[in-house]
Amino acid sequence: MNNTVSPPDALMVLGSRCPHCPTVLQGLSELIKQGRIGRLEVINLEQRPDLAEELGIRAVPWVRLGPFELEGLRSPAELRQWAERAGSTEGLAEYFQELLKEGKLQQVVDHIRRDPPALKGLLVPLADTEAELQVRLGIGAVMEDLAGSEALQAGVADLGELTRHEQALVRNDACHYLGMSASPEAVPYLRARLEDSDPGVAEVAQEALEVLRDAGITLH
After folding, report:
1. For the chain, what is the domain count?
2. How much is the pTM?
3. Strand runs (DSSP E) across the chain, as ranges?
């Protein structure tokens, strides 16, 4: 474990008749003893039914471990792994990819809207040309939902870096998403791609600039 990073806190919501809750609770208790999580709060959903709507809980056991929201049975090894991932961009990337594979796009959108810097976690699989198609399609859907948002605008510089990626697929996607940002800061990155070695990337960059212009962004 990386001792330079404070261990995450955990919140567990359980039910009295939940068959998997004891296993998850035991796993979290062990992490407390090991110092892998700093604090554990446990709530019985039957005593606090209002939390179901407040936290978006659809099933128990439900755990918030650092920035991650985990549903269902999780082994002690899985819980330890998520605790170790907390606080890192790579951990967020793994979390977002799991959600995208499960079709939980709205959870990704909501997470990034609450915490705009978390967008970096979505850009890790975007830069991975070996990422599964379902993940890449999910990223596209999330970006469309975030179009014009403060969260996407805050990520313009990071997307701009990806316009220089060695793989044309990544440059292409980065240009496309910059066009959704409605940010004047995206313009220099897109202009630089108008002479891209890949004609497809240059075309997408031009289209993205036109989208920005139509959104009222000055291109000069």
Report:
1. 2
2. 0.91
3. 10-14, 40-44, 62-65, 68-71
